[in-house]
UniProtKB/TrEMBL annotation:
<keyword id="KW-0325">Glycoprotein</keyword>
<dbReference type="Pfam" id="PF00041">
    <property type="entry name" value="fn3"/>
</dbReference>
<keyword id="KW-0732">Signal</keyword>
<feature type="region of interest" description="Disordered">
    <location>
        <begin position="178"/>
        <end position="207"/>
    </location>
</feature>
<feature type="signal peptide">
    <location>
        <begin position="1"/>
        <end position="26"/>
    </location>
</feature>
<dbReference type="InterPro" id="IPR032073">
    <property type="entry name" value="FNDC5_C"/>
</dbReference>
<feature type="transmembrane region" description="Helical">
    <location>
        <begin position="150"/>
        <end position="168"/>
    </location>
</feature>
<feature type="domain" description="Fibronectin type-III">
    <location>
        <begin position="31"/>
        <end position="122"/>
    </location>
</feature>
<dbReference type="GO" id="GO:0005576">
    <property type="term" value="C:extracellular region"/>
</dbReference>
<dbReference type="Pfam" id="PF16066">
    <property type="entry name" value="DUF4808"/>
</dbReference>
<keyword id="KW-0472">Membrane</keyword>
<dbReference type="InterPro" id="IPR036116">
    <property type="entry name" value="FN3_sf"/>
</dbReference>
<protein>
    <recommendedName>
        <fullName>Fibronectin type-III domain-containing protein</fullName>
    </recommendedName>
</protein>
<feature type="compositionally biased region" description="Basic and acidic residues">
    <location>
        <begin position="120"/>
        <end position="134"/>
    </location>
</feature>
<dbReference type="InterPro" id="IPR003961">
    <property type="entry name" value="FN3_dom"/>
</dbReference>
<keyword id="KW-0964">Secreted</keyword>
<dbReference type="InterPro" id="IPR052120">
    <property type="entry name" value="FNDC_type_III_4/5"/>
</dbReference>
Amino acid sequence: SFCQRGCCHSLVAFVKQAFVSLCVFADSLSPPVNVTIKEVKANSAVVSWDIPEGDPVIGFAITQQKKDVRMLRFIQEVNTTTRSCALWDLEEETDYIVHVQSISMSGTSPLSEPLRFRTPKEAETQASKSKDEVTMEEVGQTTQLRAGELIIIVVVLIMWAGVIALFCRQYDIIKDNEPNNNKDKAKNSSECSTPEHPTGGLLRSKV
C-alpha cells in the first residue's frame, strides 16, 4: 500500500513537471511578426506574416473578429510553411480585427498584435476593376496604333524606293539613247547641206 502510494505520488509529480515544461516551452514560442493585410476587397482579404527565425513552427492559427462583435472565426492549419491566409465571406464596409498565432509540436504562441482593417463597398471594388480593364484596353489600343504606324512607314519607304528605282531606270535609258540621237541629227544635217540633193541645201532648185 505504501509502495503504491509512493508510485502514484511520483507519477503525479512527473506529469506535473512535464506539463510545466510543456507550458514553458510553448510560452517561449514567439508570436508572428510583420502581420499585414493586402488585396482587401468587399468580401475577401489576404493576411500575411513572418515567423521569428529559429522557432519550430509547423503551422498557424488565425482569429478573425468583427469590431465590437463577440463572434469569432478561427482558422487553423498545421503541417504547412505557408505565411499567408485568405479571409473569405467578409461583409462590405465592415471593420475587422485579426490575430495570428504560431503552432509548434508543443502548442501555440501568444497572439500577435491586433491587425485592424476595413472592407470597401462592392461598388468601389467594381469601379477599381473597371478602371484596370479600361487601362488594359487603352494599352492594347496604343499597341495596335503603334503597329499600324510602323506598317504605314514601311509601305511609304517601299513606295519611295520603287519611285527612285524607276527614275534611275528611265535616266539610264535616256542616257543610252543620247549618242544615237546625236548621230541621227548629224546625218540629217549633212544630207540637207550637200549639192547631191537638189531639193535641199544652198543649191536647191527653184523648179
